[in-house]
Design goal:
Rossmann fold; six-stranded parallel beta sheet; alpha/beta; binds iron/sulfur cluster; binds cobalamin; 20 helices
């Protein structure tokens, strides 16, 4: 039970404003993916309240936009996944409290949904929306506007001076009942422009969410916590209609499907591709696939995927070692990864294959796959199809997953409060017991330099061929990186140090 003396007043009768904050999700310069979550929960309230949607990465004077609007406010909402977003969210909550301690603060998103009671114990949070907020958030607002705490609002948990109240969970919503994604509530053009400026590219790209959930059981994945391994997709006609709409409205060149598993239903994918072709939409698109599904698609559907503009599929390959694939319950084999690479090559589609190193192993035992093993496998993938980008991540255990429980069993300390979770992310877990500093440096080198130069993807090919005078430097680096990757000798990496030193001034960043 929380004994903090708060001044929250749940009686918000007559108040007109709602402020929603989407904090920066990660350290460093990630490509901005739209903060769709705060737009989705705000959409049903449009026209009824004065809405202030603030994305820390996009909204100019983002802090003032929240803090100057606390005078006549129903509540402030904060969206967060585990890690850095919590840190930024707590900092904003403290500032809100300092100006108007009576305003209720509502948290939602993956992390608060996993630990609603723990969140409510923090002074930064009064109410948590567990899971989807499309209906729960408007109902929370309805309760506050009627002058009371969210008593009986399914899917909500809230703090009271007498203790924390947990309402029953809300069943999953049918995705086809959702309102069309309310892009107009976000500053989409500014997000596109920031991304273009950062990546020196002309391609205008935004995300579209066409399905939710995934039937997979991967032991490191948080998706099942929110969607209970239940996959549902928007009907193909709706995807075609809404994608056409955003392409026209924002003059887009590319749409990135941010679904957990876009390719779960082959008939739907086929219908979407046919629709894109028939409408003459002429866009590029990118989506995620499981390694064991994509190469099993029918040739005629693969042909449609290419023809409709698919430029790249993102495959979570994770590992090539059988014991590791079993440990993480991937439901795919190394052979599936190689088959997926061949299908990409044969149909002229690029790929991004992600791998993870540093899965937990019992104290005193050796890892079942080293970074060195992974590099040898990646080499095979690259030789099949050079337009497969690869990225190795260092494993970060996310709560609510079987591998998180295993990591804790093997000795990883568990954060115990919202404040402690704020520092939990890949950048700060540098002392991971499963990946040493030497291996981390190796991963940084191959991710950021050796592989992109040794195996040029379509973007790098352009730089090697048309990069003005710079193309000669690119070609030299390409030859050196290729020799390193082939020989697996990365000692005395002079070229890497030079690259790191001069990259910003001389070369374009590698996205
Ligand atoms: C876009 C995205 C990103 C973006 C933005 C993150 C974000 N906060 O949205 C970027 C690229 C930055 C990103 C980075 C990472 N991500 Co990510 N990402 C996603 C992705 C693909 C889509 C999220 C999305 O936009 N959904 C659409 C919106 C509409 O849905 P939603 O966010 O779930 O919001 C709903 C509810 O959660 C709720 N809600 C959300 N916010 C709020 C706020 C309030 C006030 C209320 C009331 C309700 C509410 O209502 C919304 C509508 O129903 C998901 C996977 C997925 N398909 O969901 C992973 C996911 C969120 N990412 C995840 C992870 C692990 C990461 C990384 C750590 C990966 C990595 N190894 O680098 C990094 C973060 C690094 C860090 N923390 O330092 C995990 C999160 C796990 C966790 N415990 O939090 C997910 C679930 C992937 C997975 N299956 O494991 N990611
Ligand atoms: S396939 Fe992807 S989304 Fe599905 S459970 Fe595995 S990691 Fe999660």
């Amino acid at each position: 039970m929380n004994m903090v003396q708060r001044k929250t007043d749940y009686d918000r009768r007559g108040k007109k404003k709602i402020a929603l904050f989407f904090p920066t999700p990660a350290y460093g310069h990630y490509r901005i993916e739209l903060g769709l979550a705060i737009a989705v929960i705000a959409a049903p309230l449009e026209g009824k309240y004065e809405l202030h949607l603030v994305d820390e990465r996009v909204t100019p004077n983002y802090e003032q936009e929240i803090l100057n609007n606390l005078d006549d406010t129903v509540c402030v909402g904060i969206s967060s996944i585990t890690g850095y977003q919590i840190k930024r969210g707590i900092e904003m909550a403290r500032k809100v409290r300092a100006i108007n301690p009576e305003v209720p603060i509502v948290w939602g998103g993956y992390h608060p949904s996993l630990f609603p009671e723990q969140c409510c114990e923090s002074e930064a949070c009064d109410i948590v929306c567990v899971g989807q907020g499309d209906v729960t958030f408007p109902e929370i607002v309805g309760s506050l506007a009627a002058g009371k705490a969210p008593e009986g609002v399914t899917g909500s948990v809230y703090w009271t001076p007498a203790g924390i109240v947990t309402n029953p969970p809300r069943p999953l919503l049918n995705i086809n009942d959702d309102l069309p994604a309310p892009y107009h509530l976000l500053d989409v053009n500014r997000a596109i422009e920031i991304n273009q400026h950062r990546n020196h590219e002309k391609i205008r790209t935004i995300e579209f969410h066409s399905s939710q959930g995934c039937p997979g059981k991967c032991g490191y994945c948080a998706d099942a916590q929110l969607y209970q391994r239940h996959w549902t997709g928007l009907d193909a006609e709706r995807v075609i209609r809404e994608v056409t709409q955003i392409v026209k409205t924002y003059n887009l060149d590319q749409v990135n499907f941010s679904d957990a598993n876009f390719f779960a239903n082959q008939n739907r994918v086929k219908a979407i591709c046919e629709g894109f072709i028939a409408s003459g939409l002429n866009i590029r698109w990118v989506a995620s696939a499981r390694p064991d599904t994509f190469h099993r698609y029918k040739p005629e559907v693969l042909e449609l995927i290419r023809e409709s503009g698919c430029k790249r599929i993102i495959v979570g390959a994770e590992s090539a070692a059988e014991p590791v694939l079993q440990l993480i319950n991937k439901g795919a084999t190394a052979e599936d990864h190689l088959k997926s690479a061949r299908v990409c090559r044969d149909y002229g589609i690029g790929g991004t294959f992600t791998f993870i190193t540093g899965f937990p192993h019992a104290p005193g035992t050796q890892p079942q796959e080293t970074t060195e093993d992974l590099l040898r496998f990646i080499e095979k993938v690259k030789q099949i199809h050079p337009d497969i980008r690869t990225k190795i991540f260092v494993f970060t255990p996310y709560p609510g997953t079987p591998l998180y429980d295993l990591a804790v069993k093997y000795g990883m300390p568990e954060p115990k409060s919202l404040e402690e979770w704020a520092d939990y992310n890949p950048a700060t877990l540098k002392e991971s017991v499963w990946v040493g500093p030497e291996e981390r440096r190796m991963i940084e080198k191959v991710n950021g330099f050796y592989y992109p130069f040794a195996y040029p993807d379509s973007n790098m090919q352009l730089k090697l061929q048309n990069g003005g005078m710079k193309k000669y430097a690119y070609r030299l680096l390409h030859a050196m990186a290729r020799a390193r990757a082939r020989s697996h000798f990365y000692g005395m990496p002079l070229e890497w140090m030079l690259f790191k030193t001069f990259r910003k001034e001389t070369f374009e960043p590698i996205a």
